[in-house]
Write a structure and sequence with these properties.
single chain; 292 residues; alpha/beta; Rossmann fold; 7-stranded mixed sheet; 4-stranded antiparallel sheet; 21% strand; globular; binds adenosine-5'-triphosphate; binds magnesium ion
Length: 292
């Protein structure tokens, strides 16, 4: 059964994550790129949110700011009530280690370590991980992603999809309160993708974890409770539960239809040569709930 609480996070304390007016600019002057231009996102505890949007719209930047891997240029990021933007490097590192699981778009496995050692790494960094029980825990995490038989393989000996699953096992091993996954199914075949998505869904429904997942795939997004659509560094639309989840392909079709509509608006409204920091078309619209 679902574990979700009210959208305002009023029950059960602070929401898992509150981002307010978050902006992120890279580079200077003529080379300045505004990756995020004032994003407001609240994730209730025990919720599953998908983030979609064109390449370069700021999805990875959003996730990295959410978990303190990147520092916003402005705005506030609160994880379970703790303000990340005011934390020093050490406190942030500890917070990431203990409270957050992150699956990178590029996996980020350590090539010299076996799959089992990679998965065990967060436990080791937290001061444990060497015990037999921790090894067993790592193998168990690998078995949850269907890879217990590859525990002794190094990333270079694994396929892209297998590496992605090792990265997921590593993100889940500490049972973090917030799991951020950047295209966790991008390199997977449909059956394995379904397995991984069901695993994420289960961590929300049975362990009360909160998941924020970037995906380009409407089927993957249909595992979420909510889809946020990003364009040019802004949340331009939100598709809430009724439009997201539901019987099988119907939900994915609704999400795909919203994606197409947004892409059409962006195409129609974009000024020729508009830079990444210039809101145009879809980016000029305000976030809204869409009843489908
Ligand atoms: N370290 C950086 N330095 C300069 N520009 C950056 C940096 N990281 C991201 N950007 C720029 O910020 C914008 C948003 O990038 P981001 O990686 O968040 O996009 P994305 O939505 O995740 O795209 P994709 O779907 O291709 O992964 C892009 O224009 C990108 O070039
Ligand atoms: Mg990205």
């Amino acid at each position: 059964m679902m574990n979700r609480r009210d959208d305002d996070g009023g029950h059960g304390g602070a929401p898992a994550l509150v981002m307010t007016g978050v902006s992120r600019c890279y580079g200077r002057r003529r080379h300045r790129v505004r990756a995020l231009g004032g994003v407001d996102v609240t994730l209730p505890r025990g919720s599953f949110t998908a983030v979609m949007g064109p390449s370069g719209s700021g999805k990875s930047t959003l996730l990295q700011c959410a978990v303190g891997l990147d520092r916003p240029s402005g705005g506030s990021v609160r994880l379970g009530g703790d303000e990340l933007t005011r934390m020093g490097g050490r406190a942030l590192t500890r917070l990431r280690r203990e409270r957050v699981g992150f699956v990178f778009q590029s996996f980020n496995l350590l090539p010299a370590l076996t799959a089992e050692q990679n998965v065990r790494l967060p436990l080791r960094l937290a001061g444990g991980g060497a015990r037999r029980a921790d090894r067993a825990r790592a193998v168990e995490a690998l078995s949850r992603v269907g890879l217990d038989d590859r525990a002794h393989s190094r990333p270079g000996e694994l396929s892209g999809g297998q590496q992605q699953r090792v990265a997921l096992a590593r993100a889940l091993i500490t049972e973090p309160e917030l799991i951020c996954a950047d295209e966790p199914t991008g390199a997977l075949d449909p059956a394995t993708a379904e397995h991984v998505l069901a695993l994420l869904r289960r961590s929300v429904d049975t362990s009360g974890a909160t998941v924020l997942m970037v995906t380009h795939d409407p089927v993957a997004a249909s595992y979420a409770d909510r889809v946020l659509f990003l364009a040019e560094g802004r949340v331009v639309e939100e598709l809430a539960e009724a439009g997201v989840r539901g019987p099988g392909a119907a939900a994915a079709a609704r999400i795909a239809a919203r994606m197409r509509a947004l892409a059409g608006r962006a195409g129609a409204g974009a000024a020729p040569g508009a830079g990444p920091g210039v809101p145009a078309g879809a980016a000029g619209a305000h976030a809204s709930e869409v009843a489908v």
